[in-house]
Amino acid sequence: MSRKHVLFAAGAAIVAAGAFVVWKIGGPGMVLGMLRYDERREGTLRPGDPAPDVTLETLSGDAVRLATYFGRRPLVLVFGSYT
């Protein structure tokens, strides 16, 4: 095989792997949605800083402010999917 064919095969494998990852995540809409709503800010919190006040939506659709739980018992937030 010539070098041109090897590079083409490697490029095709990379594109196929990327397409597989996008398909596994849930399609292009899901990938774009994740990028659109990514609100991370690097370097704003340090160890020992209080958690920022955020509003979270419960499974039932109610809004809950994190600040309402400050100063009470320890609070654990679990992010994930169990499906």
Descriptors:
7% strand; 2 strands; elongated; 83 residues; two-stranded antiparallel sheet; mainly alpha
Number of helices: 2
Number of strands: 2
Binned, the helix content reads 25-40%
Shape category: elongated
Strand order of the largest sheet: 1-2
Which quaternary structure do these chains form?
single chain
Structural class: mainly alpha
Strand content: 5-15%
Biggest beta-sheet profile: 2 strands, antiparallel
Low-pLDDT stretches: none
The helix/strand order is: HHEE
Taking all Cα atoms into account, the compactness measure Rg is 21 Å
Average pLDDT across residues?
Answer: 78
Ends apart, CA distance between termini: 45 Å
Number of domains: 1
Would you summarize the structure shown here?
With 83 residues, the chain is mainly α. The chain contains two helices and two strands; from the N terminus they run H-H-E-E.
Mind explaining what this structure looks like?
By secondary structure, the chain is mostly helical. Helices cover 39% and strands 7% of the residues. The protein has 2 helices and 2 strands. The chain has helices at 3-25, 28-36; strands at 55-57, 63-65. It has a two-stranded antiparallel ribbon. The longest helix is centred in the first third of the chain and has 23 residues, at 3-25.
Question: How would you summarize the topology of this molecule?
Answer:
Layout: H1 3-25, H2 28-36, E1 55-57, E2 63-65
Antiparallel strand pairs: 1-2
